[in-house]
């Protein structure tokens, strides 16, 4: 009788242990999804600001059409991206083209002094800071999740149901460099 009670207690303890680890992995997975949604919301905010910025710059720098087209094209790529990886790559490209746009604006003192441009530039800078913070938060969530499913005993509980996530990283080495502007 005592052996049966011991076996039942052991099964219950193992069951609680398994459920606890499983629920922890699910919570970490959900945290990663939430962190990605935060990035996505900030990317959308940036995309909403860009048309106003482009229109403001157009009035001052009409002959800089190549830079304006690059920004518009990069924005469209972010909107068209369907996977987190594609959004990451498109977002990196958009950040790079926005850097070129702000560098071009330096050549136009009237544009730099325009209150609307300054407000838009400030809003975009603020949004870029939020995107950067959200990316770091996402990467932290991914690290915690990946550690949970790859280390013992989580790897046993995770089995093949949970897969390793990829964090946010810059793939294009050129994006790591500051843009060079030549006039």
From TrEMBL:
SUPFAM superfamilies: LemA-like. One of its GO terms (cellular component) is membrane. It is a single-pass membrane protein. Its main location: membrane. Gene3D superfamilies: LemA-like domain. Transmembrane segments: none annotated. Keywords: Membrane, Transmembrane, Transmembrane helix. InterPro entries: LemA-like_dom_sf, MamQ_LemA. Belongs to the LemA family. This is LemA family protein.
